């Protein structure tokens, strides 16, 4: 990804490059190799490697504990009970048993310390990764541009990180312990007999290759399960979220059929994946049986030749059991590893995405308080792969102006306010607030001075008060009530069952669409901005309330700058100035009384508005 | 997750254990054959596992030790040994394969069965029930809760096999040497007890970790959904703090899980190993007494290493049980939820295409309140502990009377929050009134046959739900309308031009993974969806608010001109829309305040007049403001006074906080208030 737009100070760089960057935004996947991904991931969350050295020491000790019992078996059979021929040496047996018991306890403690330290390190690292990714997602403009991608972004800080967590605490741990186990077992076996060691490895080696192959099949099968599950969740979502529509049109039967289809398809995929994943264990059992048989046969032959003791041979059979478990779990482990790396890559991909709307931060300009002057200098904008929506706008808004923006759907008025509030940056030209380029203003200053109320009044699950306080945490209930009263909403507030403490429900859905807009408006008002931008913020509110709010806002913001996308032209009538948009250009500007008097887009719009409202 | 239900004991005999067993029994009864095959496989594996240790003991005594002692062996003995080992390995492999295959089959079949049951139940439950439960919870009920319920089915056959394995092993040990068997009788119960203790300790913590994981996801979902608000108010840092808090709670709980698991794993591994050492010690002593052969010793020691793993399956099963029980309770709550809409057997005058006569008599409606004192409304919504009967209710409609003659167009007008949308839902029978009746052509809506009303009436709601499907299917919803009809409906809804421009026309897929439409386009799609059904009653709930006024006017005129002849109820604010109506119903605070023609209401209903003439009055006021000194023309004296007094009463305080940022600023409110008074 190229450098953030801020560095391109004059704004007249090639828009082609920027366009390409926006297109590439869709990838969001770091292209590093697996090792590179891990290395970068570890660097991002230093907690992962914190104290790793000591953890590995404990891990080594814990792994060494795995061969204590086979060694004890060998020692006691060969030296303690003398292969059944001599009288057992009970003192020797007791000594060995006690020694091994002590070793077992020590290695068990090491195993505990390893486990705990690993959990602590990974969970701390993952929490950091979550926090960094979450913050970064909020910095990406895609969140405010494309509602469809939000679900995918949530996965970056939840499911993807969980996948890494599961791997590190189960698969990764197993991988560490198992490979250690294989190494230790192999070393011990080689000490007893290199020939038998070779035989055991010859038996299990093909499995390792086969496991990789099977794992690839399995990961495809699991992918299918995930896809089918996604479809299934989609139909469940329709059943729940589309409940009203389904009932209103009595399409229950049809929906039920769709559910059956996706549920059964999911089951089919699950069973298929299960068939593949279960296949490993019986094969591992068979391989172990072959290895056992070969060890016994060859071992006895070697024993007859005097190369090996009976205790060593029996110990070998104990050691073969150490091989089975890692083999049985290998496919699952590889699969988890693959998922974890993919998940990590996706999280890193998000973190790698340079915020196209970057905060200049501390170095940025701080705007002084007071009414804002707005200037658009030859500003153009086009959506990626889309038509030009704003075409060379050159406009100025005087401080303290109440500006109304009108125009038909798709005329560029929403783009205009998005550029004004820096939800997007222009492809060409620049937007200036008090003669400072928007891109040079620190977000902390910008977001305090400039507040926009979007059309959809989004509320957080909580009380009315909590939602309004979102804009100004230090305000107390009396402040909030006062603000409501100033906007003339005290009547509405007193009509609510629990006043300020009324729960608004998820996304505010316990309130009507109009009421949500009222709350959003109060929220913005409480934020006390110097430039207030309203994007059809009262479209679902009844006219009487709308007019009252509009009037209250006019009063309360008379020495601030306000920009309102007008859904109803009554707003334009009340404004100091009107911008009329048509096909991405401001085609007319001036006070309502002037514009309505001259033939043009505005006069037409107004005539049609009068017809529909009066 | 309800903590209380998972905290009580989990040991055999405890309520959770008994209830968990009952859940498993349901699965066994439902899938007896699959279960039987899985258990058969598990038994084969169990027997073969114990058998393999016996084979090893046998070979030690008959083949290995003699060969080492005598320094020679025979090919026949070797072949027999190999065959024995391979044979027992094959039996183990077959048993293991069958067990895992059928256990998975059973689990997935039960999951699918209950997912279908739950989803079908959702389709039958009334909308009022849906409104009581958050979307996320209903989705996780159909998915995660069902999954959790049947999770124990995966280790179940293995656990049953392990019981058998322990029994066979016990017998085998006693047969080999009763004294050595005693070691086993100490170690295996110890392992079992360790399992139970561990599960008891870890289950609540693991459950909590699961709940916290869901919380992290909820916070992220909500925060990203509200990104525009977060960004425009510059609250990214507080949102990150909120998320980090949740992430840290999850981290701390996970570390606790890790600490317990870290303790448990070495114990579960160490105990059998210590057992082997004890066997060797006691065995050497028994050997010196000549009570046993070396092979017996090897057999029992080997058995210990083999049994350690299967015994852990008890732990897995016990670990899954509490979540299974909680999941089952939640699933059962849905499956047993009553209040499903009941339907009668009457029909609406079927042989006519004329409009429906709609009446509402004395209709009142309220909904369950989620207020809980704290104001966050988060409690009391859990599926497992909902108590709708006792919860306080919020009244939306009170004694509403309505009588709409066939073919009439009636506008419902009222301030924001007056209950207009609820009235539309009642007329469509998406909800039933608390008291009073809604009738269509004289028939009580509750006595109508299922599907009757949907056939006769269509509601276009404020916000449109788009299915993940093609444009065509989104309009027909499977009612079999021809493309010609679909295009006609689209034309009437003024949606034909944008649909024609879509890449694949009617076949374009919509929704999350398809094309997304703008608000106005969605509304027109919903309108077409209603029109294509040729409804005899059309309910429009502010259905064209996102459509440009000019287009809206054309759509409404089109609806009136067609030979549909339908009764139309339209909820609207726009005056042009209202004026198209034959009659207007004016609502306020959940009551019908007045009804009559637009002109009549303008004359006699001050609230109505205030609402529909708001823009004109605003314009007039501005005219006077421009002409004379700034004065507020109080069209409604009561309101102006009320507003003024409230503002005056709080002026001191607001002046403080509004003023602290800009000391020199004189608030417009203050000036205005004084003038009004």
From TrEMBL, chain A:
Its main location: membrane. This is ABC transporter ATP-binding protein. Gene3D superfamilies: ABC transporter type 1, transmembrane domain, P-loop containing nucleotide triphosphate hydrolases. Residues 54-339 form the ABC transmembrane type-1 domain. InterPro entries: AAA+_ATPase, ABC1_TM_dom, ABC1_TM_sf, ABC_transporter-like_ATP-bd, ABC_transporter-like_CS, P-loop_NTPase, Type_1_exporter. One of its GO terms (molecular function) is ATP hydrolysis activity. It comes from Halostreptopolyspora alba. The chain crosses the membrane at residues 48-72, 92-114, 173-192, 198-214, 276-302, 314-335. Residues 374-608 form the ABC transporter domain. It is found in: Cell membrane.
